């Protein structure tokens, strides 16, 4: 399907990334197509797996997780058992929001969101305690979110 994406599809994907609540009529007005054409295109993009879902982006305060961090993880080894132990942990840990497998010095990058620093400390201890799986962690606390999921976050005036 990616070979058959046209300029209108790209415009639609970009607009939906910014606002997944746009109606077919609103998309049609912004792109310059009919609402029925937009509906067909949106359905085709969904069926092709190019639109994975529609989500509400909550503020950390609304979500009850105002502390965000990133954790770089280096595995001790890459045996199937070690890797599966780590994968099972990240799948079940609600505070781990995103997981990326990397090249370079670390094997994974985790984006985490927690209620407070004590919860972040517990999460780091749990990760470090994954026996025969994790060899090194490096954690950073996010001070300010400027842009997320391709969308600039409105700055607050103090």
Commentary on this structure:
With 158 residues, the chain is α+β, with helices and mostly antiparallel strands. The protein folds into 2 domains: 2-47, Winged helix-like DNA-binding domain superfamily/Winged helix DNA-binding domain (Arc Repressor Mutant, subunit A, Orthogonal Bundle); 60-142, Alpha-Beta Plaits (2-Layer Sandwich), CATH 3.30.70.920. 39% of the residues lie in helices and 22% in strands. It is built from 6 helices and 6 strands, in the order H-H-H-H-E-H-E-E-H-E-E-E. It has helices at 7-18, 24-31, 35-47, 60-63, 80-92, 117-128, and strands at 67-75, 96-101, 108-114, 134-141, 147-148, 151-152. Strand 2 and strand 3 form a beta hairpin. The termini are far apart.
Please describe the structure with a list of short key phrases separated by commas or semicolons.
Arc Repressor Mutant, subunit A, 39% helix, four-stranded antiparallel beta sheet, elongated, alpha+beta, 6 strands, Alpha-Beta Plaits, Dimeric_a/b-barrel, single chain, two-stranded antiparallel sheet, 158 residues, 2 domains, AsnC-type_HTH_dom
């Amino acid at each position: 399907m990616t070979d058959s994406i046209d300029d209108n599809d790209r415009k639609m994907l970009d607009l939906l990334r910014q606002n997944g609540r746009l109606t077919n009529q609103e998309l049609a007005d912004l792109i310059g197509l009919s609402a029925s054409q937009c509906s067909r295109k949106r359905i085709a993009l969904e069926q092709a797996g190019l639109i994975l879902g529609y989500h509400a982006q909550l503020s950390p305060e609304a979500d009850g997780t105002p502390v965000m961090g990133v954790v770089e993880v280096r595995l001790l080894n890459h045996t199937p058992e070690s890797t599966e132990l780590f994968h099972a942990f990240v799948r079940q840990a609600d505070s781990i929001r995103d997981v990326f497998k990397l090249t370079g010095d670390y094997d994974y990058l985790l984006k985490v969101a927690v209620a407070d620093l004590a919860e972040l400390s517990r999460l780091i201890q749990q990760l470090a305690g994954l026996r025969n799986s994790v060899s090194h962690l490096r954690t950073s606390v996010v001070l300010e979110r400027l842009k997320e999921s391709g969308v600039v976050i409105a700055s607050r005036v103090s």
